[in-house]
Give the backbone structure.
Amino acid sequence: MRDTADIVSPATAPAAQRPWRVLHVIHGLARGGLENGVVNLLNRLPPEQIEQSVCCLDQRGNMADRLSRPLPIQVLHRGRHDLRVPVRLARLLRTWRPDVIHCRNWNTWLDTVLAHRLTGGQGTLVWSFHGFADGDWFPRRRRIASRLLAAQTDRLFAVCHDSAERFGRLAGIPIDRFSVLYNGVDCERFRPSTDRGALRASLGYRDDECIVLTVASLTPVKGHDRLLEAAARVLGRSGRRLRFVWLGEGSERAALERRIAALGIGGSLSLPGASDWVPETLAAADLFVLPSRLEGMSNAILEAMASGLPVIANAVGGNPELVDDGICGLLVDAGDTTAMADAILRIVEDEAMRTSMGRAARARAESLFSLQSMVTRYAAYYVGAARAGQGATRRGGGSGHG
């Protein structure tokens, strides 16, 4: 993949002879669910139909190393209140002339709208909402700014119905302005293991252990503090040999470690940190638990389902759209640690339920949330947006292509 100080302008072939151009504007390609989704699109959208490039406003990030083919990546190294960024981004838009400019979440929206305006509205501007990093904190100034930015944005979408409804309600934007494009999961990369015994042994798991896995950043919104209380209750009541494994890093690590030591459960609850072995760890686990206080559409839940794991999660955000409650997992009320503990115990103690729910989770991931389904949805969306923009430009007397 190519980091470039300047992206070379593509050939000005007629529209019918070249793919539609899509520019992804993101904060960077660090490890994360949103970034993983971008990389999946970069790797899988058909290049003969859609030509892609990336603009990272902040830093490049190591997820760029997962790109399977060379793609132009522009890094603007944005500073705080950096007024140069919209100008530099506008220069990039004029040079590369994308048919669709797709920016994601709040921290790219303003700079992209300003850059788009500086070009005179060249290309269709799309903004998508993937969820809040800090809860649904939404001060009045952000509500006003969101409405102004939405008025300057051609198309809006969210990754689940709950996110569309929640953001629309908080920002005062009509819900009918939002489309919904579900995320997808790579059901080949995330799948049940054909040799669980050997895999578990390689990870240091005993044959008689029930592995309860969580994959999430160690940040307040992910709710590890409440899961910790539930885990302590489960360990005190279950007759099974249990091990809770939490993959992820974040600001809450030190506080969680102190609390784990105070509860005396360090031998049954480990925090290995961030890992490049998530698919293998999921395939070796028995149960997946996500205690988030708030979610958009959780890639972690999708990956667990594709791996054939029953899922326990709070009934927040898009989780009820993913987990068929009672069929491929259990949903509990957010903040109810007793209900969370009871749900974990119920599945831990019932092997037949674990097996049945795990198979149902895998089937649901394959049928509704496969990566190929996601790619097909995005391709159709981008082509529709590009054609709509081309038609609007032609009606205005110009050509939005080539």
Summary: Residues 2-184+371-395 form a domain with the Rossmann fold fold (CATH 3.40.50.2000). The chain has a mean pLDDT of 91.
